[in-house]
Write a structure and sequence with these properties.
The chain is of the alpha+beta class. It has 25 helices and 24 strands. It has 6 domains: 70 residues, Helix hairpin bin (Helix Hairpins); 242 residues, DNA ligase/mRNA capping enzyme (D-amino Acid Aminotransferase, Chain A, domain 1, 2-Layer Sandwich), CATH 3.30.470.30; 87 residues, OB fold (Dihydrolipoamide Acetyltransferase, E2P) (Beta Barrel), CATH 2.40.50; 81 residues, Orthogonal Bundle (DNA polymerase, domain 1), CATH 1.10.150.20; 87 residues, DNA polymerase, domain 1, CATH 1.10.150.20; 68 residues, BRCT domain (Rossmann fold, 3-Layer(aba) Sandwich), CATH 3.40.50.10190.
């Protein structure tokens, strides 16, 4: 069963099947939790499913399903209720499970906003109530309707039921003309116990937990049943508004409290990650005595103007995160350490464990990251785990909190077998025997075998036919492995000569086990359809280290067509000169990616393989978005100095959306330099080259 296989070990076919299984499992869990109020799995199990789904999508982005659970919120509203369209979508929250992830959240916020690490940045921290989300709309101070979250866009009309909850007022004073108050319906532990006593006395089935009881009570078709249930409500957010509640999150919560809503008294204002984590610890210590269920702490950027700048992802806000309480830990025996070789030649150690259940899932392997991690050191050479190295036979602690791929947290030296030897990380590839070297500054040791290494060759071919690359129907990971093993396909170009070599004659594809005349012809036809390929997809399909899908499209947009790109890459081979300067000047490129790109095309065997491939293809030039009427369409712009009204990321995104090319350096091809305070050498170079220079205000006027 693929659910027990680490994501790093999944083949593409396994990953595809696993995403199908996860979509069904998560959909069923969502329906049970949100629509039927009868969860069939624990929160930890649900988190494990969603995190595994996210990890597989991250590793195989081309396999992401159109109905991916990561793009959905809640579940469709029940047919038993009327429907209400939310004026403002009710989104979910992204999760953090460790202190480091909270720090990463803070770092990402500061980076997006252009704030220095030491700059003050306030957050609110509040308990994450384990209940049912509800949105209540007031117009001119009177309750108009109440709706569950549903799928985030359409919820269930539970107005009559909401009116029975004492914490939800019918009439508001001093409120905006339009106000949608959002919060959580829950049931206190004491009320839950009393309710279950009544349920059993009446011969009815008791509820499994307070959350089920609260959700089931609110979603009764008979409001009188809801009235008899002891439901409570905490307000913590808002949706549609005719006027702002306040300028900050904390002031807005206080405003809701002042107009008769219950807000959580443990909500506090915190300064940076230290304050957030300190309050998290305090709430965690009080968790058992609160009298109601919580499963974490929610952090939100306090300044509402900054929330507006940060905006939203597809299903979650950038300015908030839920810090969940720890999942399970478990101890087991480390039975072995295997070394796997990836597409880029990276040697990745994997721990083979005596199977153990962690968070409801059987775990039999865990990532060991790299040789430093095994030796008890971090990337800087400092000690981790108190400097304890990991050896075969050790008794190790495994965790899954926040990570679908299990990890080893610690080990018990008192149980180390006598004679256990330190693990010797190989300096030769276990697949091809080539030297495995570790470059300065790289945490990973890599095989130097390149195309002669079967592990790298097969993985590159799998990547080549993946969804975001050539996406050839009928030619997946399983078929690639089979054809490579039998010598039918060794390089990408071989795919496009497959029909010539094995469509007729003594050895034919249709005569192989698992293939017939129809399936063989279907594959040949699918290959023919992919002879025409967009520039960006082709570049991504080559699997060049450091050059991902977004970077490939970025490069394609910059150069336009394949021939121009090839000429530029060849000219940049000395890693200096105008062509090199142009390449590294592409905004978002950097010298590491540029060097990797030039090096790949400069290697004789690699270049021969690429040229043999492109001889079979028609490569479509990159297409730019429709920017009719844009004053900067087709122009190359450079930003320098400090932008005061938007961050560099915002400015770049806006410019590109309007059809401009954003470069990181000034050259004779630059059309416009936007210079903020502190502009230095770029402004001088622009003046020397006669490039037009404007300030940020003029830029904003120009783009409207």
């Amino acid at each position: 069963m693929t659910g027990k296989v680490a994501v790093t070990e999944l083949t593409e076919e396994q990953a595809k099947a696993e995403l199908v299984r996860l979509a069904l499992a998560i959909g069923k869990a969502n329906d049970a939790y949100h629509a039927k109020d009868a969860p069939e799995i624990s929160d930890a199990e649900y988190d494990a499913l969603t995190l595994r789904n996210a990890a597989i999508e991250a590793r195989f982005p081309h396999l992401k399903r159109s109905d991916s659970p990561s793009e959905q919120v809640g579940a469709a509203p029940s047919e038993g209720f009327g429907k209400i369209q939310h004026k403002v979508r009710m989104l979910s929250l992204s999760n953090a499970f460790t202190d480091e992830e909270v720090e990463e959240f803070d770092t990402s916020i500061r980076k997006y906003l252009g704030l220095a690490p030491e700059a003050p940045l306030a957050y609110t921290a509040e308990p994450k109530i384990d209940g049912l989300s509800l949105s209540i709309r007031y117009e001119n101070g009177r309750l108009v309707h109440a709706a569950t979250r549903g799928d985030g866009e359409v919820g269930e009309n539970v107005t009559a039921n909401a009116r029975t909850i004492a914490d939800i007022p019918e009439q508001l004073d001093a409120a905006p003309d339009v106000l949608e108050v959002r919060g959580e319906v829950y049931m206190a532990h004491a009320d839950f116990d009393a309710l279950n006593i009544r349920q059993e006395a009446q011969g009815q089935k008791p509820f499994a937990n307070p959350r089920n009881a609260a959700a089931g009570s609110l979603r009764q078709l008979d409001a009188e049943i809801t009235r008899a249930r002891p439901l409570k409500f905490f307000a913590y957010a808002w949706g549609d508004l005719s006027a702002p509640l306040a300028e900050t999150q904390m002031e807005a919560i206080n405003r809701l409290n002042s107009i008769r809503f219950s807000t959580n008294p443990l909500t506090e204002l915190c300064d940076g990650t230290a304050g957030m984590l300190d309050h998290y610890r305090q709430i965690e210590q009080q968790r058992a005595t609160l009298g109601y269920d919580i499963d974490g702490v929610v952090y939100k950027v306090n300044d509402l103007a900054l929330q507006g700048r940060l905006g939203f992802r597809s299903t979650t806000p950038r300015w908030a995160i839920a810090h969940k309480f720890p999942a399970e830990l478990a101890w087991t025996r480390l039975e072995g350490i295997d070394i796997q070789v990836g597409r880029t030649g990276a040697l990745s150690p994997v721990a083979r464990l005596h199977p153990v259940t962690v968070g409801g899932v059987v775990v039999s392997n865990a990532t060991l990251h790299n040789e430093d991690y095994i030796a008890g050191r971090d990337a800087k050479g400092d000690e981790i785990r108190g400097g304890k190295d990991i050896r075969i036979g050790d008794w190790v602690q495994v965790y899954r909190a926040g990570d679908v791929i299990p990890k080893i947290a610690d080990l018990d030296l008192s149980k180390r077998p006598e004679g256990a030897e330190p693990f010797q990380f190989p300096n030769r590839c276990p697949e091809c025997g080539s030297e495995a070297i570790r470059e300065d500054g790289d945490a990973v040791r890599r095989c130097t075998g390149g195309l002669i290494c079967p592990a790298q060759a097969v993985e590159k071919l799998k990547h080549f036919v993946s969804r975001a690359a050539f996406d050839i129907e009928g030619l997946g990971a399983k078929q690639v492995e089979q054809f490579y093993r039998d010598g039918w396909i060794k390089t990408p170009a071989d795919i496009f000569t497959l029909q010539d070599r094995y469509g007729t004659g003594k050895q034919q594809l249709k005569n192989r086990e698992g293939w017939g005349d129809k399936s063989a012809n279907n594959l040949f036809q699918a290959i023919e359809e992919k002879r025409k390929i967009p520039f960006g997809k082709l570049l991504f399909a080559l699997g060049i280290r450091h050059v991902g899908e977004a970077a490939s499209n970025m490069i394609a947009l910059h150069y336009g067509d394949w021939d121009t790109f090839i000429a530029a890459i060849d000219a940049a081979k000395p890693l200096e000169g105008p062509a090199w300067d142009e390449l590294v000047g592409i905004d978002g490129m950097g010298t590491i990616m540029a060097t990797s790109l030039v090096t790949a095309f400069a290697q004789e065997a690699e270049r021969a393989s690429i040229d043999a491939l492109t001889a079979h293809l028609t490569i479509e030039p990159a297409t730019r978005p429709d920017t009719t009427g844009s004053p900067v369409a087709g122009k190359t712009v450079v930003f320098t100095g400090t932008l005061e009204k938007m961050t560099r990321a915002e400015a770049k995104a806006r410019a590109e959306a309007m059809g401009a090319k954003v470069s990181g350096s000034v050259s004779s091809k630059t059309d416009l330099l936007i210079a903020g305070p502190g502009a230095g050498s770029k402004a001088k170079k622009a003046a020397d080259l006669g490039v037009e220079v404007i300030d940020e205000d003029a830029w904003l006027d120009l783009i409207g």
